Amino acid sequence: MPHRPYVIDPMISAKTIAARIEDLAREIQVEYADCEKLVVVGLLRGSFVFIADLVRELDMNVEVDFLEASSYGDSTQSSREVRILKDLRGEISGRNVLVVEDIVDTGHTLKHVVALLKTRGPKKLETIALLDKPSRREVDIKATWTGFEIPDEFVVGYGIDFAQRNRNLPYIGKVRFTGE
Ligand code: IMP
Ligand code: MG
Predict the structure, then answer these.
(1) Is 41 helix (H, G, I), strand (E, B) or coil?
(2) What band does 3 get if pLDDT is binned at 50, 70 and 90?
(3) What is the distance between the alpha carbons of residues 17 and 33, in angstroms, rounded to a whole number?
(4) Of all atoms in ligand 1, which is nearest to the CA of residue 112?
(5) Fewest CB within a 10 Å sphere: which of 8, 23, 34, 122?
(6) Within 10 Å of residue 30's Cβ, how many Cβ atoms?
(7) CB of 21 shorter than 6 A to ligand 1
(8) Side-chain half-sphere of 20: how many Cα atoms within 13 Å?
(9) Is 98 near ligand 1, meaning CB less than 6 Å away?
(10) Residues designated as active site
(11) CATH 3.40.50.720 fits 13-154, yes or no
(12) Could you please report the per-residue DSSP string of 55-76?
C-alpha cells in the first residue's frame, strides 16, 4: 500500500508517560494487594512497550502472557469484527488477571477480549489502557485504569503503529498528513 506522506507531531512525552505509569502501578498494587500473583495479559502488538514499562513498576509477583486480537489491518479505519489471532499460553481460571491495552478506540476489541476471558472464570479481571479516545466509542466499555484521554487523532509511537511503522518512537505523537 503506498503511503501518503505524513509527519508526526509530538503529543505525550516519554517523561510524562513514565510518570503516569508510576502512578498507575501504585494504584494497581493497592487494588491487587491481597493477591499472591498477578497474570498480566498484554494485547499484541500495540501494548508491548507499555506492558514492559508497567510490569517493571509493579513490586509484586507477576506472570506475563500475551493475546493477539485483530480488528484493524493496515489502515486507520476500524472494523467491527474482532478475531483472536493468538491465544494465551496459560490458564486464567481462578486467577487474578490484568488486561493491558494500548488504546481503547471504538471499544470493540477490549469488550470482546474481556467477554472471552471472563468465560474462563478468572477470580478477578481488570483492564488498563494507556490511551482512551472516548469520543470514538461505539460500545459501552471503559478500562479500569486509563493513562491518558486523548481527542480523536490517529496516534503512533510507544508501541503503537501506523501500518506497522513508528512503534519504536519513545513518545506518543499524532499523525498529520502533508501535501502530496
Ligand atoms: P477498538 O476496537 O476500536 O477500540 O480498537 C482498538 C485498537 O485499534 C487498538 O488496540 C489499536 O491497536 C488500534 N487503534 C485505535 N486507535 C489507534 C490509533 O490512533 N493509532 C494506532 N492504532 C489505533
Ligand atoms: Mg491493539
Answers:
(1) strand
(2) confident
(3) 24
(4) 2
(5) 34
(6) 8
(7) no
(8) 17
(9) no
(10) 105
(11) no
(12) HHH--S-EEEEEEEEES--SSS
What pLDDT shows up at residue 77? 56
More confident residue, 70 or 127: 127
Ligand 2 centre distance from Cα of residue 161 (Å)? 9
- 57 close to 25: Cβ distance less than 8 angstroms: yes
For residue 48, the CA-to-ligand 2 centroid distance in Å is 10
Ligand 1 atom closest to Cα of residue 105: 4
- The candidate with the shortest Cα–Cα distance to 80, out of 151, 119, 132, 136, is 136
What are 21's three cell numbers? 505509569
**95-141 pLDDT tens trace:** 999 999 999 999 999 999 999 999 999 999 999 999 999 999 999 99
Q: How far is CA 53 from CA 22, 50, 86, in A?
A: 9, 5, 22
Cβ of residue 154 lying under 6 Å from some atom of ligand 1: yes
Q: Which protein residue's CA is at the shortest distance from atom 16 of ligand 1?
A: 105
175 Cα to the center of ligand 2, angstroms = 17
Instruction: Give one word for 48, left, alpha or beta, with left for phi > 0 and alpha for psi -120 to 50.
Output: alpha
